[in-house]
Structures are given as structure tokens and as C-alpha cells.
Amino acid sequence: GKELSQDLGVPSPAIIAHRGASHLAPESTAPAYKLARDIGADYLEADLQRTKDGVIVVFHDEALKRTSDIETVFPEKAEQPLSEFTYKELKQLDTGGWFNEKFPDQARDSYVGLNILTLDELIDIAESGNNNPGLYLETKFADKYPGIEKDIIEILERRGWIDGKPKFSDPERKVNDKLGVATVNVMERDSRLIFQSFYSHSIEEFNSLAPSVLRVTLISKDIEEKYGWENIIEETVATSDGIGPVGNLALPWRVNKVHKKGLIVHAYTINSPFQMRILHRSGVDGIFTDRPELALEVYDRT
Ligand code: G3P
Ligand code: CA
């Protein structure tokens, strides 16, 4: 797996800060991402959705009530999905205060009153400081947001994160020819950006609109049960650079099969030192974790 990551320019094992350093600060908020960046996580992971008026924001759940005070601010609309709100409405919510109540040990006064983050603000965070973390961006509920891939790409292009110039003089260079897998068209691969989704149509859309950006297909237990591991690999090899399985699917034989096809494996969501070590031994190339500070220690990256 290490060579495959190297070929793609991705650190191995990659430490991907799941919704930021979300064990220490409210998930998907500025403090969580700033902490992850300053700790030295390789990537900031973010779930993207679109407001009613077309703003791309960072938020995990379809509904707002778990991680905001919507029940106080708009009680009559508390069950509605994020897509039904304008950005101006969402900005009135406190997306940090819930964390202090749920995790009193980690509470901080400064977490009260945090605003929902936009993709642009997340890029600002990734670009400031000295650590230059990458962005690992997921299209959430992608079937509900037609065209969101194009919207995301436009922002990233405007911010200079996508540059489709060919990297190699021979664009047909076989990346994985030593492994005997299919010829891959290698464009400029700025490995600082990775797109991820559970939705294969979303991955396909990214592949056709921004082929130079790495793509990882996420695999839940349900998806694996429905299609089977081998079939999933066969289907994703053409459009993806990696597979992102839930941790307990990442058994050595499965990881091996993925590597044989020239794809990397990033497992989610891995929060205990025990799991971190086991998965490393299973050969995974990186983990999504709420605890990047711990992963850096366990993987001896500090
Ligand atoms: O993106 C990897 C992992 O985050 C997928 O699960 O529900 O936390 O977005 P979820
Ligand atoms: Ca995610």
C-alpha cells in the first residue's frame, strides 16, 4: 500500500481529521479544523451540503438539531433538512454550544455561538498556518443536490486548488504497471485535495469534471452487504483512486484485494489506539479519525 500512496503523493498512513479534531472541539466548526491543522493532521475531512440559496457549507447531518440550537431559534422548522434553509438563516444558529453540554470535559466558552462554516471559510483555514493540510471533501446526500460537484469544483478552481495540467510528459503513463492493472490516464495530481462520496454517481461526476483530483469511494456495511466486496472493487476501479470502508470491513484479505487493483484504502472512523494499530497491521493506507492528535502519536508521527 505504501508505494501506491507514494505514487499518488498521499502520506501513509494518512491521518484524516474527521470533521476536524472533533473529539476536542465541536465537529465541522472553525476551532475543530484549526486544531486539526495545528496538530499536524494530513487532511481536514468535511461533509458538504448546499443551502437553499446555493451556498456550499460544511455540515454532517441532514437535519440541524443534533449539532445546533435550531430548536430554540426556529422551533417550527427544527425537523427540516439543511437544504430548506438559506445561508442567512443558518448563520443565526449556534453550531458549537451543544458540544459543551454533551462533552462537559472538553467544554470551552469560546465554542458557544460558532457559525456554520462555508467551504470558502474551510479553505481559508487550510491555507493559513504553516502546516498546509489537505482537504478531503465529501458530497453528503448527493442525490438531493444535483450539480453540487460542479459547484464545489468552481469554488476550488477559483481558490487555485484545482489545476488540470498534465504532470507527466506521457499522459498515458501506466501508474501501476508493475501491478499489471489497467492503464490510467495520469493528469496533474495535486494530492492536497481528495473527493469522497458514498454515491458512485457523485464520484463519476467528479471524475468527468475534474479528473486531476483524487477520488475515494466510501463503502458502508450496507453497501458491502448489498453488492459484495469484489463487485464493488470491480465497479470503482475505473473511477476511483481509493476505497474508504467502514473500519470493521478493512480485514487484511479485503485490503489486499484493493491494493492488487492499484487502489489505496482509507478506513473510517477510527478513534481508539487499539483500532489504529489493528488497521495499520491490516495494511490500510490511512484513517479518518476524530482524534488526529492521538493517531499522530500511535503512528509515531509526532
Ligand atoms: O467520510 C468518511 C466518513 O466520514 C463517512 O462517514 O457519516 O462520518 O460522513 P460519515
Ligand atoms: Ca464524512
Automatic annotation (TrEMBL):
PROSITE patterns: GP_PDE
Domain of life: Bacteria
GO molecular function: phosphoric diester hydrolase activity
GO biological process, one term: lipid metabolic process
SUPFAM superfamilies: PLC-like phosphodiesterases
Domain GP-PDE, chain residue ranges per copy: 13-299
Gene3D superfamilies in alphabetical order: Phosphatidylinositol (PI) phosphodiesterase
Protein name (record): Glycerophosphodiester phosphodiesterase family protein
